[in-house]
């Protein structure tokens, strides 16, 4: 049991090592404090720290919308396969981060209409630096706050955000490997290249393919390896 838990932990750690995709897209937010200062894109530019300054962090306008404040990142490519998201919030302002939600979505709709990766729960204040595993594909990442500050209502002050994963069709630590053409839709998991929707049945003996697991039930045809035909590895063993 202990060994199983240790292995599980190691596997989880090895997952959180994909490329930061924030150079490939733009950020926006519900409102901008102080005119052109506190630009939402400050949160995707260095420094990577919790130190606050309007020139280096995002900051929504205080109290201008009592119901919700948000920060949104939109990828410049069609679809990202996200593995995890790291947030650096403003030092000493965890109380404004309290109750935040993090979404991955395919639309820019507010309130967010997509997958809820994480919701800060009570009791206690959140850590201002958080790595949040979120294994999901999408076009947008949204930090959403409906609680926040008792005087000003929701306020978003993000100093740095890293969104790790790979663009659709790519995998590997630096997303430099192409997903194998055997994968349906050429879509594979960013960390290991295995097909997400399974293999093309034409690559499998008798065309028998488990579309959920990507396994060739009767094995692979010549040129592809493994009892279970691990699809992402096929392009390395032509
Ligand atoms: C976004 O669209 C892709 C492709 O249709 C789908 O696989 C994915 O689950 C969607 N993501 C969300 C968060 O709905
Ligand atoms: C904050 O960080 C500490 C230490 O890393 C961890 O034990 C705790 O679970 C974290 N709390 C939250 C709410 O993430
Ligand atoms: C990924 O990129 C980094 C920085 O350029 C480099 O040091 C590393 O060797 C690369 N890793 C792989 C597996 O290509
Ligand atoms: C590849 O990663 C996915 C997502 O974590 C996992 O479900 C799948 O089993 C992995 N494939 C292999 C061959 O390890």
Structural features, described:
The chain is mainly β and about 240 residues long. The protein has 2 helices and 13 strands, in the order H-E-E-E-E-H-E-E-E-E-E-E-E-E-E. The protein is elongated, with a radius of gyration of 21 Å. The N terminus and C terminus are likely disordered. The structure holds 2-acetamido-2-deoxy-beta-D-glucopyranose (NAG) (4 copies). One 2-acetamido-2-deoxy-beta-D-glucopyranose binds next to loops.
Task: Give the key terms.
2 helices; 4-stranded antiparallel sheet; elongated; Fucolectin tachylectin-4 pentraxin-1 domain-containing protein; 8% helix; 13 strands; mainly beta; disordered C terminus; 29% strand
List the helices and strands and how they pair.
Blueprint: H1 2-15, E1 19-20, E2 25-29, E3 69-75, E4 80-89, H2 94-97, E5 101-105, E6 114-119, E7 129-138, E8 140-145, E9 158-167, E10 170-171, E11 177-178, E12 209-210, E13 215-216
Antiparallel strand pairs: 1-9, 2-3, 3-8, 4-7, 4-9, 5-6, 5-8, 10-11, 12-13
Organism: Mytilus edulis (Blue mussel)
Protein name: Fucolectin tachylectin-4 pentraxin-1 domain-containing protein
Keywords: Signal
Please sum up the structure shown:
The chain is mainly β and 238 residues long. The chain has helices at 2-15, 94-97, and strands at residues 19-20, 25-29, 69-75, 80-89, 101-105, 114-119, 129-138, 140-145, 158-167, 170-171, 177-178, 209-210, 215-216.
